Amino acid sequence: MRILSQKQDVKYTLSVLDAHGDELFGVVYATIDDVIIGKLDFSYWKYADKNPVSVKMIEVVPEYRRQGIATGMVNSLKEEFPDEGIDYGMTTPEGTGFVTSLAKAIKLLSYKIKPEHLRTLWYEDKDGNVIEDFDLETATDHPDGAYAQVSRFPTSLRENYIMLDDSRELLDSGGLFAGESTWPEDLVLAIVESGDYSLSEAILIGANACGRCLNALAHDYGLDWGYAEGSEEWKNTNTKCEFCEEEER
Q1: Where are the alpha helices (DSSP H) in 61-198?
Q2: Strand 11-20 and strand 23-32: pairing?
Q3: What are the helix (H) ranges across 83-240?
Q4: CA–CA separation, 67 and 201 (whole Å)
Q5: What is the largest CA-CA distance in the chain?
Q6: Rounded to whole angstroms, how far apart are CA atoms 215 and 221?
Q7: Which residue of 45, 61, 66, 126 lies most exposed, with the fewest beta carbons within 10 A?
Q8: Which residue in 88, 86, 207 sits closest to 154, CA to CA?
Q9: How far apart are CA 195 and CA 189, in angstroms?
Q10: What is the pLDDT of residues 125-166, one digit of tens each?
Q11: What are the E-state strand segments in 105-205?
Q12: Rounded to whole angstroms, how far apart are CA atoms 17 and 72?
């Protein structure tokens, strides 16, 4: 699998290829730098009882599969025919899985997830109301009426240590200290997409790897940052972690 980097823009283009009476035949292409990586063939017949749009075939170059390319082509088709149903016809087992996941995604979108639902830092008043119209980027002080600052960081891993007493029981208070580390989201996603590790395992790898291991992993998983293991940059990075310490023993 070739992992898409954040700088690789996928372009979706819809074209009508032919028409026979009231039926249109077209294609949606997915391209990167004018190279075709995906193709969706479709037809449209406005007199159909339901689902006037019919998907004939969806193809994605193997190394770019399972990265949202097929979904992007379907979304382009929906933008062209926003009020029409789509028939996916007969599908392969892989295609059936795609259609099922697409249906789940559509259902999820119906909940109308908004940007404010995804915020990571905000202020609330004494009644628990979010203080809006406050620019965290430019602010030099806390907002008027603020009672609490609330934060939640999804790319932060917390590690807790709870001390034991002499009878090997957990201490109820005191004896607790914790450490936190962050992990690069693009690297964790690339590791998961490769199938090498689960999401939980990838997060642990990203959170516990030292600087040079993170860069070596980013290089190995095809991201647009990082450097190769054994390169001059790698040799000059004097960091160590549990992963590379094992190799040096």
Answers
A1: 69-80, 93-109, 185-194
A2: antiparallel
A3: 93-109, 185-194, 199-208, 211-220, 232-236
A4: 20
A5: 87
A6: 10
A7: 126
A8: 207
A9: 10
A10: 899 898 888 887 788 888 888 899 888 777 777 777 776 766
A11: 121-124, 148-151, 156-162, 176-182
A12: 20
Edge-first strand order for the sheet with 23-32 is: 11-20, 23-32, 35-45, 53-60, 86-87
Tokens standing for 175?
């004896």
Phi, psi of 163 (to 5 degrees): -75, 155
Model pTM above 0.70 = no
Please report the domains of the chain, with CATH numbers, ordered by start residue: 11-91 (3.40.630.30), 156-248 (no CATH)
Position 115, amino acid: P
User: What angle in degrees, to the nearest 10, is found between the helix axes of 185-194 and 211-220?
Assistant: 50
DSSP-based three-state secondary structure for 187: helix
pLDDT: which is higher, 167 or 204: 204
Helices 199-208 and 185-194 meet at what angle, rounded to 10? 140
Q: Give yes or no for a contact between 237 and 226, defined as CB atoms under 8 angstroms apart.
A: no
Phi, psi of 196 (to 5 degrees): -70, -35
Task: Determine the length of the chain.
Answer: 249
Residues 6+ apart with CB under 8 A from 66: 1, 193
Residues 6+ apart with CB under 8 A from 54: 42, 43, 44, 45, 48, 86, 87, 89
- Calculate what percentage of the chain has a pLDDT beyond 90: 7
- Give residue 217's pLDDT: 92
Which candidate, 211, 212, 214, places its Cα nearest to that of 191? Answer: 214
